[in-house]
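user: Please review this fold.
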Amino acid sequence: PPEPRGLAGRAFQVLALEIDHGRFERELWFPVEVDPNRTTAERRDGWLWIHLPLKGGSR
């Protein structure tokens, strides 16, 4: 996917890429804790960007 605007030079990783249409649901498990209170999602230019900040700033 194209690099998100405003993130030039910042690290990010695409963990899953799904090209489909219509309604769907996906459940994901991560090996680290994410902060659900800071999680955001947005649709931009036909892409769904999901930002999952780590809980407590851990790496």
Residues 4 and 49 are 8 Å apart (CA to CA). Residues 34-59 form one domain.
